Amino acid sequence: MTTHDYDLRLRGGRVFLHDTGLTDADLLVRDGRIAGIVDRDVPAEAAETVDLRGATVLPGAIDPHVHLGKDIRVPRDREDAERETASAVAGGVTSMLVYLMSSEPYEQVHRAAREAMESGAHTDFGFHFVLGTDDHVRAVPAYVRELGVASFKFFMNFRGDEGAYLGMPGNDDGFMYDLLGTTADAGAMVNPHPENIEIVWRLRERPRDESQGALHAWHLSRPPLVEAEAEQRVAYLAAATGASAYAVHTSSAAGLDAMRMQRSAYPNLFVETCTHYLTLTTAAECGTYGKVNPPLRPREDQEALWAGIADGSVDTVGSDHNSRHRSFKEKDIWSASAGFPGTGVLLPLTLGEGLRRGVPLARLVDATSTRSAKLFGLYPRKGTIRVGSDADLVVVDLEGETAITAERQHSAAEYTPWEGTTAPARIVHTLVRGHFAVRDGKLDTERPQGAYLHREHSGAAALAAVEKEEL
User: Fold this and answer.
1) Domain range annotation of the chain
2) Dist. CA 149–CA 143, nearest whole Å
3) Does domain 63-383 have CATH number 3.90.105.10?
4) What is the distance between the alpha carbons of residues 425 and 428, in angstroms, rounded to a whole number?
5) pLDDT tens digits, 221-257
């Protein structure tokens, strides 16, 4: 019986290494981890050798913002896990962080959601909890310590009965203040959904103007000032409490500028944008399929966000993936559901469009992988290619293209607002802990092997751990 030193050798690729950039090297994998980064002429016996033929090897993408389940609250069965994570790995995502939403205590919710994900997830996965009750806040230290969840969403717009359709109670800034202080003490982070809903309520009373199209009308109903004001408020309270705050799905120049201003005085503030704000605008032809909160914005906001990617003031790119069926979207702009699927296009669109715009590859890798790993307590296990890290890898043909269609996205939503778009990059292979989840563009439907990611800290506490590890 022949024995080998390694399980896999990836030969002939151009590997992205944080110290040197793209490097001609072979990768050696053993027991799901990177065991060697070697010159191409170094002898090493592996059970399997795959020739990458000069393709680019990047750290697997991390999607920090995903909603699963048919009602977007929690994944409940194998289909919720299998179909949406299939979409993710087909697009080069190897880990995702999924929002669980409930007004009940999270111990049982977490257990059931984890079991559903483990039954069919193609990616590794962790959770964020959406908090809305005082009992939730009191339980934060236990959630971090016992359940491995160290990041918590708070809907600033859930005032009155605004969140009732999702089973969430109303709240106020006093609740947010307590939550920020509690997470700071626990080494965790708050991910606020920043919208001033009182202003939105006032704007709802005004005549609706669809003269520039339905998506522009939706943008006017929740304009950038709604986002920017809320971001400033939560950022100021985060500074007052010593908390870390991560502004999810930043959509506008005004929102980004608000976070830049607050971060100049207090460092523990972080910014996420999403693929759709980088690649779709109010002029998009997708109609109500493109309805989302915050809304798609005009082109000048898109350009400001790309500038933020380039200069690092935008930390991460997520998808805000939502797998509600297309039937919830095929209505007018005012009654259609908000949100759409996107995890499968996060990497090809962000990477391809970013490179086309001249954004350095290192910045794009950081925004789609490394920074999320560092902020959410996954680094260096995830988010980098180095010896000892998980062999979470995406092999990309940067000269290729990806035709985006609903059929190819695998999602149960059965539509995509990017239908007919071509992304200027092609995913060749996706490896999750050394396993080919996607090989030569084909999904492994037989052996989804996603595992739960237990996280002990996020935000400033996670970054401090990274600094200590790298000393």
Assistant:
1) 63-383
2) 6
3) no
4) 10
5) 999 999 999 999 999 999 999 999 999 999 999 999 9
